[in-house]
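Exam revision sheet. Question 4 asks you to relate a sequence to its structure. Input first:
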Amino acid sequence: MTYDPSRWLRRILLVDAATSAAMGLLLVVAASPLAPLLGLPAALLDYAGLSLIPFAALVGWVATRPQPPRPGVWAIIACNAVWSADSILLLLSGYVAPTGLGTAFVVAQALFVAILAELEHVGLRRTAASMA
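Answer key, structure tokens:
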């Protein structure tokens, strides 16, 4: 069995799509009950969830291409990097006063998304190197 870097990249992208869709649906469906637990505004959770649905669809589309388009993968990496940075900046901004659970939630998802961005970057580099 040979190693196919584009297959590995597609799998990472599929994980990103699936987890983004799951988180988006969770936040949209449960924004109101989660808000007091996390100490985050329900509107913020709802908006975040709504923004993840089309993102998940885009990532899923890119992941299902036989060769994921480089510009699409770069856009996904950039979005993930911005999401992670904005999540941490939200905590530092003073705009919200999350509970301990809320802080852990925001930090954990920011780290997860940052790891996905890095794995996607590695996959993109390996795919490019295998094509050279």
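Marking note for examiners. The radius of gyration is 16 Å.
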